[in-house]
Amino acid sequence: HRDSPENNPDTPFEFTPENLKRIEAIINNYPEGHKSAAVMAVLDLAQRQHGWLPISAMNKVAEVLEMPPMRVYEVATFYTMYNRKPVGKYHIQVCTTTPCMLRDSDSILEAIKKKLGIKVGETTPDKLFTLIEVECLGACVNAPMVQINDNYYVSTT
């Protein structure tokens, strides 16, 4: 992580009262003394609340779960489901691993890039669309696969 004006330890982030209740319910799913097991679910909750995961949100997750911040960073940087920079309203993820590539995901990716006028890893100027290329999304039998926000689109053409 490198601090920036919009992403630094002083960036405001607090869980809403509703999400604090959700966190309590999530933690209750794990044995006593194992709050840290909830890290993935609580990171997801923080991301859904804020739209992405600034370092201050990760620090808050560490605080709530009583775990070292570095352990939270390790999880947030390992999994591609966590966005460590802002994404557009519509987060388009195109799978280009072998099964999808063999079913022409490259042409789908090119068509989206052309239509939106952006490259992979970019967001449109109006902040509506972010396009990324991802590893397997787990729908190989119905390749090619595109995920937009939480929705899966299989057998795309």
Automatic annotation (TrEMBL):
It catalyses: a ubiquinone + NADH + 5 H(+)(in) = a ubiquinol + NAD(+) + 4 H(+)(out). [2Fe-2S] cluster binds at C95, C100, C136, C140. This is NADH dehydrogenase [ubiquinone] flavoprotein 2, mitochondrial. NCBIfam families: nuoE_fam (TIGR01958), PRK07539.1-2 (NF005722), PRK07539.1-5 (NF005725). GO terms for biological process: mitochondrial electron transport, NADH to ubiquinone. It comes from Tichodroma muraria. Its cofactor is [2Fe-2S] cluster. PROSITE patterns: COMPLEX1_24K. Binds 1 [2Fe-2S] cluster.
